[in-house]
């Protein structure tokens, strides 16, 4: 056990349920007492925590695949940090662990929910992104859910984001005939083509998605990885070849909507084209974790797979990082650094 434990820790609480876009007054950065860990637990000084689009849904008081955040309690999410006190077998002070109690400086973590990570294999922040839940989402969503096969033409929305950028590169590495990405700025479009090796990309703000996709994929698409929903999903249905497959991973276009959002108007095409649209949760694919880490670590080591992170410094900017993510201000994984 460590002799000089911190006595307090700052943590972000949800204090009101956002209506539409989250506002600063819906959140509060509060101080909490820190105690020595009970049996079977470890105390972790967080170095990085993740903000992710799915967290917006957890701010609503509705039943979903993940319980909503409780008001006036610390929020949670992926984090990686250093053990500063241990009352659990197999964990020592100085170990680095990945766990689910982010949005705070010091986390009191059940040891069964902590996973040791190696800072020598990859930077610690990578375990929240390319080697973490983000990377596994891309890997499982493309290869398992969408049944990608060599020669497929792949379209990715939100393609400069943490998941989308990995999907496109993985498809190229596995022999896609064409990879097309959509992003929200000309700068991101340039990044997709020049750094990530997409064959084509477009800024969805520059014109109708359906027209831009048709121009970028004149021979149609076989796989669509959906992070956005809305107009993008409608465009993909229009461009699909027969037996096209879509992985529905996220619908960020409607997370902050206050009115019901209309669905695609061309759903009838699903019948004639015999399309398959499948929702995915990364938690269903934990069996792929060992294969994923082995393959992706190899791609990272060889330099074949590239990734970007957008880092916001300081716990006091946790809200800013989250809202920035929803506005698309990030390139790659959005991380809050506490170091």
Distance, first to last CA: 22 Å
Q: Average pLDDT, to the nearest integer?
A: 94
Residues in helix, %: 10-25%
Which parts are unreliable, with pLDDT below 50 for 5 consecutive residues or more?
none
Radius of gyration over alpha carbons? 21 Å
Provide tags for this entry.
339 residues; alpha/beta; six-stranded parallel sheet
Brief synopsis:
With 339 residues, the protein is an alpha/beta fold. The protein has helices spanning 54-58, 133-145, 162-173, 186-194, 209-216, 230-239, 269-272, 289-302, 318-326; strands at residues 8-14, 27-33, 41-50, 79-86, 96-99, 106-110, 115-116, 153-156, 178-183, 200-203, 221-226, 240-248, 276-279, 309-313, 333-337.
Q: What do these coordinates show?
A:
- The mean pLDDT is 94.
- This protein has helices at residues 54-58, 133-145, 162-173, 186-194, 209-216, 230-239, 269-272, 289-302, 318-326, and strands spanning 8-14, 27-33, 41-50, 79-86, 96-99, 106-110, 115-116, 153-156, 178-183, 200-203, 221-226, 240-248, 276-279, 309-313, 333-337.
- The protein is 25% helix and 25% strand.
- The chain is built from nine helices and 15 strands.
- With 339 residues, the protein is of the alpha/beta class.
- α4 links the parallel β9 and β10 (200-203).
- α2 crosses α3, α2 crosses α8 and α5 crosses α6.
- The longest helix is centred in the last third of the chain and has 14 residues, at 289-302.
- It is globular and about 65 Å long.
- The strands form three sheets. Strands 3, 4, 5, 6, 7, 14 and 15 form a seven-stranded mixed beta sheet that branches. A six-stranded parallel beta sheet has the order 10-9-8-11-12-13, with helices on both faces. It has a two-stranded antiparallel sheet with strand order 1-2.
């Amino acid at each position: 056990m460590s002799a000089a434990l911190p006595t307090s820790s700052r943590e972000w609480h949800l204090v009101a349920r956002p209506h539409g876009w989250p506002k600063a007054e819906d959140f509060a950065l509060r101080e909490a007492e820190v105690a020595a860990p009970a049996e079977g637990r470890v105390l972790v000084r967080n170095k990085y925590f993740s903000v992710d689009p799915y967290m917006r849904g957890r701010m609503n008081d509705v039943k979903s695949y993940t319980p909503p955040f409780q008001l006036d309690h610390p929020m949670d999410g992926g984090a990686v940090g250093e053990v500063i006190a241990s009352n659990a077998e197999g964990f020592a002070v100085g170990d680095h662990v990945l766990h689910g109690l982010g949005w705070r400086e010091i986390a009191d973590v059940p040891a069964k929910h902590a996973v040791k990570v190696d800072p020598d294999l990859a930077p610690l922040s990578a375990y929240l992104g390319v080697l973490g839940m983000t990377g596994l989402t891309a890997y499982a969503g493309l290869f398992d859910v969408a049944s990608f096969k060599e020669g497929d033409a792949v379209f990715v929305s939100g393609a400069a984001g943490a998941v989308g950028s990995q999907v496109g590169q993985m498809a190229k590495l596995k022999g896609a005939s064409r990879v097309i990405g959509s992003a929200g700025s000309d700068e991101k479009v340039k990044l997709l083509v020049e750094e990530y090796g997409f064959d084509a990309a477009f800024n969805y703000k520059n014109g109708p998605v359906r027209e831009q996709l048709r121009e970028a994929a004149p021979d149609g698409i076989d796989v669509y990885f959906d992070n956005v929903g809305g107009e993008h999903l409608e465009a993909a249905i229009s461009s699909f070849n027969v037996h096209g497959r879509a992985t529905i991973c996220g619908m960020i276009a409607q997370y902050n909507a206050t009115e019901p959002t209309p669905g695609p108007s061309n759903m009838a095409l699903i019948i004639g084209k015999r399309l398959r649209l499948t929702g995915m949760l990364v938690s269903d694919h934990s069996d792929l974790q060992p294969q994923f880490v082995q393959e992706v670590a190899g791609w990272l080591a060889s330099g074949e797979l590239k990734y970007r992170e957008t880092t916001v410094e300081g716990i006091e900017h946790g809200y800013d990082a989250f809202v920035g993510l929803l506005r698309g201000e990030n390139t790659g994984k959005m991380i809050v650094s506490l170091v």
